[in-house]
Amino acid sequence: MSTTPPRTHAVVWDMGGTLLDTYPEVDRALCAAVHDGRVGADDLREVSVLTHRSIESAIRELASRHGLDRGILDDAYAGVRDRWKTRPAPLIDGVPDVVDAVRRAGGLNLVVTHRDRDGALALLAGHRLRVDDVICPGDGYPRKPDPSMILAVLARNGVAPGDAVAVGDRPIDVQAAWAAGVRPFFLVTPGLPAPTETGEDPSTAIPSVRGLLATVADW
């Protein structure tokens, strides 16, 4: 008599702004580079709105808007990444609780990030945060909102899209999840556009990663 193999569930995590609170330091560094060391509230918000789309596009846009050599901004971002080697960005509140809950439920914690692999692994190691797999564009995949990275990490871990959820803090995270057939959760960042302002389904919004706990409890 054949038996149905057990289903494997997973949370697909974005990294910056979702697992790790990377944006404050990045935003301040880019703002200071644009404004000769000054970090005013309005200037910081300009940068924050851009980086929450993507850091690469933010650097490009800021250089264009302010007539700067983008190398100045690239150097500022590189300086932040260098500091993270010895002082990693802090974890987002609630992340250890959810990661542990996923593991206790028999699920997998999978990371899909735009960061380079070495940098991503170093940040995770700095917090001794154990995840089950990490995938990034350097592995040969296009960036989000293309769903390829999500589909690839699910496939190589034996997880069906319908048995996974994804969480991220940017519209591209939600868009990639929908395109992969994965239920998305939009982690709202205070002071930045909410899902209703970015055109996303407001039912996906959670104010904290702890909003995933109810889903994990049903596995």
Automatic annotation (TrEMBL):
EC number: 3.-.-.-
InterPro entries: HAD-like_hydrolase_sf (IPR050155), HAD-like_sf (IPR036412), HAD_sf (IPR023214), PGP-like_dom2 (IPR023198)
GO molecular function, one term: hydrolase activity
Pfam families: Hydrolase (PF00702)
Mitochondrion listed as a keyword: no
Enzyme class at the top of the EC tree: hydrolase
Record keywords: Hydrolase
Transmembrane segments: none
Keyword 4Fe-4S tagged: no
Protein name listed in UniProt: HAD family hydrolase
